[in-house]
Amino acid sequence: MTDSLVLLDHSADGVLRAPVRELVTLGRTLGTVHGVWAADGAEPDAQTLADLGALGVARVHRLSSTGDLHVAAVLAEALADLLDATGAGLLLATSSFENKEVAAQLAVLTGAGVVTDADGLAVEGDGLVASKTVFAGTWNTRCAITSPLAIVTLKANSITVEPAERAGTPDLVEHASTASAAAQRVTVVERTERPASGRPDLGSAHVVVAGGRGTEGDFTLVEELADVLGGAVGATRVATDEGWIGHDAQIGQTGVTISPRLYIGVGVSGAVHHRGGMQASGTIVAINSDPDAPIFEIADYGIVGDLNEVLPALSAELRRLRA
Amino acid sequence: MRIVVCVKHVPDIQSDRALGEGGRVVRDGGDGTLNELDENALEAALVLAEEVGGEVVALTVGPDDAVDAVRKGLQMGADEAVHVVDDAIGGSDVVGTARVLAAAITHIGATDPVDLVVLGMAGLDGLTSLLPSALAALLDVPALPLAAEVTVADGSVRVRRNLDHATEVLQASLPAVVSVTDQANQPRYPNFKGMMAARKKPVTTLGLADLGIAPADVGTTGARTAVVAAAPRPARENRVLVNGGSEAGVQLAAYLVENKLA
Ligand SMILES: Cc1cc2nc3c(=O)[nH]c(=O)nc-3n(C[C@H](O)[C@H](O)[C@H](O)COP(=O)(O)OP(=O)(O)OC[C@H]3O[C@@H](n4cnc5c(N)ncnc54)[C@H](O)[C@@H]3O)c2cc1C
Ligand SMILES: Nc1ncnc2c1ncn2[C@@H]1O[C@H](COP(=O)(O)O)[C@@H](O)[C@H]1O
After folding, report:
1. Which of A140, A165, A192, B144 has the fewest CB atoms within 10 Å, i.e. the most exposed one?
2. Contacts of A302 in chain B (CB under 8 A)
3. pLDDT by residue (tens digit) across A1-23?
4. Do residue A88 and residue A175 come from a single domain?
């Protein structure tokens, strides 16, 4: 049994990030799950606590600090405190860049072993073993954590969310910590949260439709298909550099890493930098007019054709089939 | 201002990359190269040194071939280079590598203090992005990772960064550690003059003993994680490739519905 702390990532208005539910579902298979709510301005409402209880969270620790919890060093110190207080042997977090910063600092503070972007975690023998894909989704690996304390960040869409057999309402307990002067040397001068788009979040969406240079700047057909499928809209760096869509839509090695159930690349060549961020997707569909485009090497379903002809028919037929 | 840039030698991402014994990245395939994202780190450091005056030291930790990474740094315009190589380092995890880098930076700073350490946003081999924050913690200086913009003025550093759900501006006093993204700049190409000049620039080679690190603290013995299994992912099966326009779109809709993907 390994009890875990699960970092409850949330938006500035207190809405849980979707992948947190996967973390709780996973943590439950290992031991008792303690939720950690970083009190950075937003608070969990009754509905959020009930949702967490339904997933099997035993207790929610409302973590506050004398420092700014948006500073990684401050959050790492507070979490080190809480790991001590609860005796948990594992910290589970989503694989966001911010959480990786916290994980690295916490590893130095506590001697924990860290695995990032895992897609599974299990107790084997007397230790934890995480699974993850590497090299742009071309290799599967299993990685043992040999230290007493483990930090694992989980890739979104790795675990099927299921309610717990026994639901309850978690207690909300306060945990106040003191930030060291050293941790407070970084000042957050400005922080602007992007407003939610109305579509699912790119990093955790089940379906992603990505547009590249082939769209020639017009994302209307891409957006229409994404909306029919209830998916998120992504893009290549060419499209974001051209300003056709925001930088936060960039999929790839230097953008968002995704592994949705369904990825549809439209006018995307499949350059290695882009593949690095999406090759672990469930089903890969490519629509491209060039039969030699590298994306066809990794596609489950490829159409060599003009997106301006394929997409309208695809969206219309999907609407018709589901009507 | 004295700036150290940490650069890594990694397998070329265009090559067939593999994991070998003990789950370690195969690094002797002959197609190693400077981690592309570290070119952005070098560029950021060179620009800062040009703006405020100062010197740039390129630092790498890795096997013999890794010296190529710092050589490329010298060709781009870094003033000197340090290569830490020791058989005992092989198999280090992130914190192990960070320990060696931290000790090397302390060593470099012993003669003349280091004001800023610049890193790339990720190594394109492991893609963990953990190292910059771990290094800052070990050096006990502030961390400002993922800069899309870096400025230094009046003894402090300021970065603008784009996160998954927010944008931020962070500030801290020097000395500090920053990592930069590929949005930060357009790396320069080494020109002929730069290549010739690089040949005369010093490359210092150090081992663990020079840095006062016990071999057991790094490498596989010091690591807190160990790869226990690694295998190439099986090829995708039942792949479909069709030619066409609107009729292909109609067919794809049926495929998606049939496979419960829509
Ligand atoms: C350090 C570094 C980091 C990078 N990081 C990333 C990253 O994270 N993510 C990323 O995406 N890129 C990244 N890149 C860029 C990457 O190398 C490629 O340049 C980029 O992914 C290509 O984008 P694209 O597929 O839109 O454009 P192109 O490669 O130009 O491909 C466009 C495709 O559209 C097809 N097409 C054109 N018209 C039509 C039509 N009417 N119908 C159907 N198909 C059509 C063409 O056949 C072509 O295959 C990075 C590059 C560097 C150097
Ligand atoms: N062995 C190394 N030698 C020098 N710098 C490194 C090494 N490993 C990682 N780095 C630096 O740390 C950054 C982030 O790497 P990583 O955390 O491994 O993704 C890289 O872009 C490099 O700047």
Report:
1. A165
2. 239-242
3. 899 999 999 999 999 999 999 99
4. yes
Q: Is the CB of A258 under 6 A from ligand 1?
A: no
Q: How far apart are CA B115 and CA B118, in angstroms?
A: 10
Cα separation, A181 vs B223, in Å, equals 29
Could you tell me the domains of chain B?
Answer: 2-222 (3.40.50.620)
Query: Residue B130 Cα, ligand 2 centroid: separation in angstroms?
Result: 9
- A39-70 pLDDT per residue, tens: 999 999 999 999 999 999 999 999 999 999 99
Q: Do A9 and A148 sit in the same domain of this protein?
A: yes
Taking contacts as CB-CB distances below 8 angstroms, the residues of chain B near A284 are: 236
pTM: 0.94
The 10 Å CB-count burial string (b at 16+, else e) for A211-240 is bbbbbeeebebbbbbbebbebbbbbbbbbb
Domain membership of residue A190 (yes or no) is: no
Show the domain range for A303.
Answer: 207-322
The pLDDT of B233-259, averaged and rounded, is 95
Tokens of A120: 């599974």
Quick check: is A77 in a domain? yes
Task: Pick B252's closest partner by Cβ from A114, A194, A314.
Answer: A314
